[in-house]
């Protein structure tokens, strides 16, 4: 499955919440997320544009692989996220580092979630407060290869309808690494 998303720096979260409600989005709660990123021992994910993430959300944990970004207006990439049976990523981080993976950085954020069904497509919106970076909004949908172009168009159109401009192409991880440099 492909994740099609756009991310925007956000100055006014309250105003965006109001616009989301006006287009029919439904608030789905607020969660704290901690995303530990690891790099492969034999290839540099910064070069291959891939990501391996161990995510903790409350008492749930997930492992996620993200493939290279595909050339398009929206950030589109293969993503596979699987739940971990153990509700902590600490043990998995230890196993992977013993296998040669190395910790890159941890992204911590407060994420406010909204959902919207429109024209047969499910959208997820988030308002993120990212530790060390500030506030961002994301507009996302999923697609297969055949519906990728339509999904990108839908994400771009919905972002424009919400008044979101000046998309940030970098991931939170990329922004944190740049900020540290």
From TrEMBL:
PROSITE patterns: CYTH. InterPro entries: Adenylyl_cyclase_CyaB (IPR008173), CYTH-like_dom_sf (IPR033469), CYTH_domain (IPR023577). It holds the Pfam family CYTH. Gene3D superfamilies: Hypothetical Protein Pfu-838710-001. Residues 1-178 form the CYTH domain. It comes from the Bacteria. SUPFAM superfamilies: CYTH-like phosphatases. Signal peptide: none annotated. PANTHER family: CYTH DOMAIN-CONTAINING PROTEIN (PTHR21028:SF2), SI:CH211-156B7.4 (PTHR21028). This is CYTH domain protein.
């Amino acid at each position: 499955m492909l994740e099609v998303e756009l991310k925007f720096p956000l100055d006014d979260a309250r105003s965006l919440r109001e616009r989301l409600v006006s287009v029919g989005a439904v608030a789905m709660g607020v969660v704290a997320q901690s995303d530990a990123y690891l790099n492969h021992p034999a290839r540099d994910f910064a070069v291959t544009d891939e990501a391996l993430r161990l995510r903790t959300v409350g008492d749930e944990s997930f492992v996620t692989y993200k493939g290279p970004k595909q050339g398009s207006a929206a950030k589109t990439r293969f993503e596979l996220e699987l739940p971990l049976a153990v509700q902590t990523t600490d043990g998995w981080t230890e196993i992977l580092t013993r296998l040669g993976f190395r910790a890159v950085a941890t992204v911590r954020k407060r994420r406010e979630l909204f959902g919207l069904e429109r024209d047969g497509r499910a959208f997820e919106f988030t308002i993120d407060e990212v530790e060390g970076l500030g506030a961002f909004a994301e507009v996302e949908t999923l697609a297969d290869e055949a519906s990728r172009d339509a999904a990108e168009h839908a994400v771009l159109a919905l972002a424009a309808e919400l008044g979101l401009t000046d998309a940030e192409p970098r991931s939170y991880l990329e922004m944190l690494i740049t900020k540290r440099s």
